[in-house]
Write a structure and sequence with these properties.
Layout lengths: L1 H22 L5 H25 L9 H23 L5 H12 L7 H7 L8 H23 L6 H6 L5 H15 L5 H11 L2 H15 L9 H26 L4 H11 L6 H9 L3 H26 L1
Length: 307
């Protein structure tokens, strides 16, 4: 369990640094915007190129992917239905809320959890690629369209993700993985260095927002926050377990890997997207905080029950 604890402590410390910097007035809300923009436009695309370039994309075609997709569809679908029919949220806010309910922290937390708890970082690869190549491009296309006021022809909507730096970085990484090509050192080394900025920038910006933003739940619906957190921590892993175990017949360590991956907390980059498009920022921030804290006992319990 040391890997789980170490991963969560590391994230918490870096977030705490951002909150402390804001508390001491070394940085302000403007700095948070700058850090988020650097992460979105520069560091994260570089990280995607180098990370996916080394991944085995064939792992996407697995039982892990099928169960993970089921968990995502059910959790996000429930939120979308409630957001549109009950809370009457606009399209952009609904998109961020759906991501908060189902988009897991498969990168900076999922990788150490997969390595130290599950014994192999490859277990998180299907979820990581699903999110980067399907969920994120679709969500960003919707957010881009919403920011433009809608009315976009279908072909422009389809091509819109290709104008997003994160999507382009992900696709370039997949091309490198599929073809086996390697970047020249003079190109790869700067990308690796820039990619190292991604996670710290996200976490520090998140810490600044925690300190300078409104208190937990004060700027949004408490019921909505409870819904996104419950969907992420409980509904998504339970659905993944049912599909993997009952439908697909997965057992043992492979089943543990699927369920633990689905129980990971909401990814910090959802807050970056919310900030970038100014949609449901507080909901994303609070869901990330609650699920990051709540996932610790959930994952420990799952490791004990299924391990």
């Amino acid at each position: 369990m040391q890997g789980v604890i170490t991963g969560f402590v590391t994230i918490g410390v870096v977030i705490g640094v951002g909150a402390l910097l804001a508390h001491l007035r070394i940085v302000d809300a403007g700095a948070q915007q700058v850090l988020s923009r650097i992460a979105f436009f520069v560091a994260s695309p570089a990280l995607m190129v180098t990370t996916l370039g080394r991944a085995d994309v064939h792992q996407v075609l697995s039982a892990n992917l099928v169960a993970s997709v089921a968990g995502v569809v059910v959790a996000a679908g429930i939120y979308i239905a409630l957001a549109r029919l009950v809370w009457r949220r606009p399209l952009g806010d609904t998109t961020i809320g759906a991501l908060s309910s189902a988009y897991v922290n498969a990168g900076n937390l999922g990788i150490p959890v997969a390595s130290y708890v599950l014994g192999d970082a490859a277990y998180v690869a299907p979820t990581l690629l699903l999110q980067l190549l399907v969920m994120q491009p679709v969500a960003l296309a919707v957010l881009d369209s919403d920011a433009r006021g809608g009315g976009m022809p279908w072909w422009q909507f389809a091509l819109r993700p290709l104008k997003n730096p994160l999507t382009v970085g992900s696709l370039l990484g997949v091309v490198l993985s599929v073809t086996g090509w390697t970047l020249p050192t003079i190109v790869e080394d700067p990308l690796v260095l820039l990619g190292h900025m991604a996670v710290p920038s996200m976490l520090v910006a998140y810490g600044v927002a925690l300190r300078l933003g409104p208190g937990l739940g004060r700027a949004g619906s408490v019921s909505e926050l409870a819904t996104t957190s419950t969907l992420k921590l409980l509904v998504q892993p339970v659905v993944a377990w049912l599909v993997a175990s009952v439908v697909l017949g997965v057992e043992g360590h492979a089943l543990l890997a699927i369920v633990v991956t689905s129980a990971l907390p909401t990814a910090q980059n959802i807050f970056v997207h919310a900030t970038r498009y100014d949609r449901a920022t507080v909901l994303a921030r609070d869901t990330i905080l609650i699920t990051t804290i709540g996932s610790v006992p959930v994952i420990l319990l799952l490791a004990w029950l299924l391990g």
